Each structure stands twice: as C-alpha cells, then as structure tokens.
Amino acid sequence: MIMTNLRVIEYGDFVKRFGDEVMKKDRVCSVCLEAMEKRNEMRELCKCSHVFHRECIDGWVKEGRLTCPLCRSALYPDPMDFGRPDPRNSFLDCDVIY
After folding, report:
1. CA 79 to CA 34: how far, in whole Å?
2. Is residue 67 part of a domain?
3. End-to-end CA distance of the chain
4. Is the pLDDT score of 86 beyond 50?
5. Quick one: signal sequence residues (predicted)?
6. DSSP labels, 59-84
7. Model confidence, pTM
8. Residue pLDDT, tens place only, 18-62
9. Which residues face 74 on adjacent strands?
10. CATH number, residue 12
11. Range of 41's domain?
12. Percent of the chain with pLDDT over 70
C-alpha cells in the first residue's frame, strides 16, 4: 500500500518546486548514499517531503521499514481518528447554548 501511494517524481521537478538550495544540501540519497540527478525517479514522502531514489525507498519498505530513513516520521500519514474532534476546527470548542 505504501509504495502505491507514495508519489513518484523526477528530482529535477522537486528542485524546481523547492529551489536550487535543495541541490546544494540534499543531493545524496540517504539510503544508498549516491548522488541524486535531476533525471532520477524519486519518491517523495507524505509527511516530511524527504525524497529518495525510487528503488532505494521501495527496497526500504520491502524490508519492513515504515519510517523515513532521515527523520523517522511515518512513511504514510496516520489514519484519521474519527472518534475525536479535529483540533483545527475551532467551532468545536465553542459552548453550545440550548
């Protein structure tokens, strides 16, 4: 499920979105330690937006690892807890007058 839902992008598109500063500091895949080239297929993680070579992160997941190799956030967002109100909805905090 994780591999089918993590989007595949070209590293060049990632660089365009976040700027050339990305090329200066985040140019190495943390799984294989090889350079990332603009034409490489990458997977961008949902929660942290870290990118890795597609085949590297796929192998990472196949080994049963479910967290980002860099920051250890979950590779895929947590399922929503429908039993609790969403704290972002401030109207739920209002007093109700009957």
Report:
1. 33
2. no
3. 46
4. no
5. none
6. HHHHTT--B-TTT--BSSPPPP-TTS
7. 0.70
8. 776 666 666 889 999 999 888 999 998 888 888 899 999 999 999
9. 67
10. 3.30.40.10
11. 2-62
12. 70
Spell out a b/e string for 24-58, using b for 16 or more CB atoms within 10 Å of the CB, else e: eebeebbbeeeebeeebebbbbbeeebbbbbebbb
Token pair 């972002």 is found at 88
Q: How many domains does the chain have?
A: 1
Using alpha carbons, list the distances in angstroms from residue 76 to 7, 61, 97: 11, 11, 40
Q: Cα-flanking dihedrals φ and ψ of residue 39, to 5°?
A: -90, -5
Each as own residue / partner, the long-range contacts of residues 77-86 (CB below 8 Å, 24 or more positions apart, any chain) are: 77/46, 77/47
